[in-house]
Amino acid sequence: MRAMLRFHAVAAFLAAAVVATAHASAAFPKICTLRPLGAGRDDTDQVEAAIARCGHFGTTIFEPGEYNITRKMTWDLAYSRVDLHGYLSFQPDIEYWLNANNTYRVIFIQNQASWFVITGHDFVIDAHSKGGINGNGQPWWSYFATRTRKDGDGRPVAFTLSKVTRGVVKDFRIEAQPFWCNAVADSREVIYDGMYCNATNQDAAFAGQNIVPNTDGINTYRSDKITLLHWDITCGDDCLAIKGNSTNIVAKDITCRGGNGIAFGSLGQYVQFNDIVDHVLLEDLKLLRLDPQVQPNLVSGVYLKSWTGTVHGSPPTGGGGGGGFVSNVVTKNVLLDRVSRPIHLYQTNGGHSSDAPSKLQFSNMTFLDWTGTSQGSLLVDIECSPAAPCPNMRFKDVNITVVNGTTPTYKCVNVVSETGLPGCNVTGAA
Ligand SMILES: *[C@@H]1O[C@H](CO)[C@@H](O)[C@H](O)[C@H]1NC(C)=O
Ligand SMILES: *[C@@H]1O[C@H](CO)[C@@H](O)[C@H](O)[C@H]1NC(C)=O
Ligand SMILES: *[C@@H]1O[C@H](CO)[C@@H](O)[C@H](O)[C@H]1NC(C)=O
Ligand SMILES: *[C@@H]1O[C@H](CO)[C@@H](O)[C@H](O)[C@H]1NC(C)=O
Ligand SMILES: *[C@@H]1O[C@H](CO)[C@@H](O)[C@H](O)[C@H]1NC(C)=O
Ligand SMILES: *[C@@H]1O[C@H](CO)[C@@H](O)[C@H](O)[C@H]1NC(C)=O
Ligand SMILES: *[C@@H]1O[C@H](CO)[C@@H](O)[C@H](O)[C@H]1NC(C)=O
Ligand SMILES: *[C@@H]1O[C@H](CO)[C@@H](O)[C@H](O)[C@H]1NC(C)=O
């Protein structure tokens, strides 16, 4: 399979990048070591000073503990290694962070805010499964539980990679992300090997409700050759969200606990841009339902969505009308635990019934080796746009059981060609 070959090429490439980086830091053995200043003190200055001194041609070592971070921070890294044995703890001063002057807006899509940005090339950040970021999300979730949330409203992404080339993030933990856990934008040749994110509400006042929407595991945008290995994501939204111009993406060994599942999109929000998603391999996925008192949702295994062909207002909250395509996607070895609708594709996101149909086309998608359970009996619901019917939808060894024993149903609308789903209705296609 072509996607597999590409995966191995990417893995070999990244191994070379790590070796190169290790050599670089051996050749430039500048070392900065930090320890937390202690309760009530602000660590932001010392963290910035260490990265300024050792972030190029050097190694920065964070001893264990919590580092108090009180303002936005960018690390520019080149030929550099960071060993993060503790947590960068971003203080939950909500009013402060919501002031647009106090975050960065480096992720173009939906004008999302970031409080911590990594940029540069040829680096390794290794948190040794002992450190990372503490997002202190609980006050954020409780605050927004009774307020309107909007894309671009300033809730910060916990960990943003922007304009990175050849970067490695290893065994990194993000506790209680207030909003998206990760974003990678305008980057290439990045490997995330070991990532943990956990947005779990513990405010009893909201038990049984999903007050952690938008806590996506990652959004990828305008990025090429991004590899995600060994992820464990607890969230109330998209476990992974593959957005416009994500190409050569590999995700392997991904556990998603609660939320909406793995998303492609939304795509086509910006009328002036084509969103291209090409060559994506998702392999060894687990979608697990949580205790409904903790997180009521586990919607899909994989779902794909585009806006309609009509523009309704402008982004970040409105939009539509954008073109592009999604193609050459393989999902393989997927285990479902009581999802609502395993596979779903729709092209009416944010739309009205009288809208022009989307011109963004989905094609060449393979669903291989799916097992486990669904709460809904509609296992596959593929509703392609009449203006861009889907060719070449392939299903093989998709064997999902409906929990209450009802007979599974499948729906294929505007599908040009499909194999492997006996009885999936192929309608509306030219
Ligand atoms: C973080 O530093 C600020 C001073 O800028 C201080 O007011 C606050 O108490 C510190 N927070 C913690 C958790 O130490
Ligand atoms: C942001 O900074 C600019 C320039 O210093 C200032 O004019 C503006 O009032 C600030 N905005 C807020 C919301 O504080
Ligand atoms: C996520 O955090 C909650 C609350 O602290 C905890 O109960 C749960 O075990 C964590 N999940 C994982 C996978 O670590
Ligand atoms: C995606 O890339 C294509 C060219 O390959 C470009 O025309 C388009 O504007 C890009 N879309 C976005 C969202 O940047
Ligand atoms: C879909 O696959 C077919 C057959 O392999 C190929 O000819 C076509 O170019 C692919 N479409 C896209 C958009 O890559
Ligand atoms: C089984 O679940 C499906 C989907 O939720 C529902 O439509 C159906 O009525 C249920 N059947 C029984 C026998 O409970
Ligand atoms: C489908 O899965 C069920 C339950 O795991 C199993 O009993 C059955 O043999 C499987 N069917 C096929 C065709 O693999
Ligand atoms: C296919 O469509 C026909 C007519 O609309 C319907 O009777 C049948 O149940 C559908 N089959 C499946 C598997 O969804």
- Parts with pLDDT < 50 across at least 5 consecutive residues: 1-14
Work out the helicity level.
Answer: 10-25%
Shape: globular
The CATH topology assignment is: Pectate Lyase C-like
Major sheet summary line: 25 strands, parallel
Q: What is the percentage of strand-forming residues?
A: over 45%
CATH architecture: 3 Solenoid
Topology, please?
Blueprint: H1 2-27, E1 30-34, H2 44-54, E2 56-62, E3 66-69, E4 73-84, E5 87-90, H3 94-98, E6 104-107, E7 112-114, E8 116-126, E9 132-134, H4 137-144, E10 156-157, E11 159-175, E12 182-185, E13 188-198, E14 218-221, E15 223-234, E16 238-242, E17 246-257, E18 261-267, E19 274-288, E20 300-307, E21 323-339, E22 341-349, E23 361-374, E24 378-383, E25 393-402, E26 409-413, E27 418-419, E28 425-427
Parallel strand pairs: 1-2, 2-4, 3-5, 4-8, 5-9, 7-10, 8-11, 9-11, 11-12, 11-13, 12-14, 13-15, 14-16, 15-17, 16-18, 17-19, 18-20, 19-21, 20-22, 21-23, 22-24, 23-25, 24-26, 25-27, 26-28
Antiparallel strand pairs: 6-7
This protein binds 2-acetamido-2-deoxy-beta-D-glucopyranose (NAG) (8 copies).
Keywords: Carbohydrate metabolism, Cell wall biogenesis/degradation, Disulfide bond, Glycoprotein, Glycosidase, Hydrolase, Lyase, Polysaccharide degradation, Secreted, Signal
Catalytic activity: [(1->4)-alpha-D-galacturonosyl](n) + H2O = alpha-D-galacturonate + [(1->4)-alpha-D-galacturonosyl](n-1)
Organism: Dichomitus squalens
